[in-house]
Amino acid sequence: MGQALKRSTINSDRLWDALEELGRIGAFQSEHDEIMGVRRLALSDEDAAGRRLVIEWFRDAGLSIDIDQIGNAYATRPGIDNTLAPVMSGSHVDSVPSAGRFDGVLGVLGALEVIRSLNDHNITTHRPITIAFFTDEEGCRFATDMLGSAVATNRVPLEQAWSLRDADGRSVREELERIGFLGDEPVGLRKPHAFVECHVEQGPILQREGLDLGVVIGVQGISWQRLTITGASAHAGTTPLEYRRDAGLVAAKINAHMREMCTSGSFGELMLATMGVISPEPCSINVIPGRVIATVDLRNPDDTALESAERHLQAFLSELSASEGIEIESQLTARTPAVAFSPDVQSVIADTADSFGLRHRRILAGAGHDAQEWSRVCPTAMIFVPGENDGISHNPLEYSSPEQCANGINVLLNTILTLADQDS
Ligand code: HGY
Ligand code: MN
Ligand code: MN
């Protein structure tokens, strides 16, 4: 049955319309004329509105919907043999504060387009297919990333996840309840036959090399910390240098040192470090910052080098604290090792891309993804779609063309068909 249906293609206009419509939820006028950004922080009203729209589309496509205790949504299309584990595909609909319209969303609406296309072609797959969106992939509001997938695959305990609080003290559990997504399906029980996620590359490689797709081999290691730097606020005009305990200066020294850690080569050529949050208090032009909340995002494809970088940075913080007479408290908020994806699923993706005559290469993911969590419970890989503007992402300028998106989802559709035909 499945063989005859190879090379099925999706309705790319319908996919694009869905991307545009969901992109209007949480939309705001960016600093670039006529470019709208997206802000749908996890479990916010905007996220809730986006979730409800997607659930409505899932229902319209005839899918049965389950919501689990961490708010992940699973939508299943029956196959011929529903005793078999489903093929799963999905991603996230929450966003960073100033996002584009494709990050995560392409994977969710692309999976929906797969279902819609199967319905159009009256295709019945051997295995059931489950499509999904997962809670708080971005980790911006509740401080740890891939939260929903990490709970669903037993890496983060549910109670711990529920207790995470945002800057206003609201917990994940309270917010799930408030937006009506505190589901009752127990977490940690799902074990798909295979998991495939389509996602924008969020980097310049595919565009620079003139390629149509990336076959993702894995994800680099990620280490997040929250730093609380405590000095003493004082008058900017009357406090002599030797009397200062300037938390702002210390944050700047840490940030500069993090860049040196990347350029020095001491942790390999691919070390990345970012201080994305730098929040001084009391944040006034004439007051020396008494306290700074800052974040550390370390990334490295080599776990040993990442661990060495973490140790090095801790030692640097201790020395700086002593020399500046400033307290520096660091809290590890997210930590995921480098992950390798299934060579078998990668081969299915690559063969499928070949059947469409699409140019592709193996590529490592620089960003974290839901797929990396699911790769612990089943054979998993990802499809990357190139982006314009050097693949910029986590920025309203994020853009992939209708054709680039259609290429990715056509390969997703036929990869899922192949996997859904597998007996074991
Ligand atoms: O931070 C990341 O890599 C992803 O966007 N959550
Ligand atoms: Mn993403
Ligand atoms: Mn992202």
Structural notes for this entry:
By secondary structure, the protein is α+β, with helices and mostly antiparallel strands. The chain folds into 2 domains: 2-220 and 339-420, Zn peptidases (Aminopeptidase, 3-Layer(aba) Sandwich), CATH 3.40.630; 222-336, Alpha-Beta Plaits (2-Layer Sandwich), CATH 3.30.70. Helix content is 34%, strand content 22%. It is built from 12 helices and 18 strands. The protein has helices spanning 12-23, 45-60, 105-120, 147-152, 158-163, 172-179, 205-208, 247-263, 303-324, 343-355, 370-374, 402-420, and strands at residues 27-29, 36-38, 64-67, 73-77, 87-91, 129-133, 194-200, 213-219, 221-230, 234-235, 272-274, 278-281, 287-288, 291-300, 327-336, 339-340, 360-365, 380-385. Strands 3, 4, 5, 6, 7, 8, 16, 17 and 18 form a 9-stranded mixed beta sheet that branches. Strands 9, 11, 12, 14 and 15 form a 5-stranded antiparallel beta sheet that branches. A two-stranded antiparallel ribbon has the order 1-2. Strand 5, helix 3 (105-120) and strand 6 form a beta-alpha-beta unit. It is globular. The model is unreliable at 1-5 (pLDDT under 50). One manganese (II) ion binds at residues 92, 103-104, 137, 199, 367, 369.
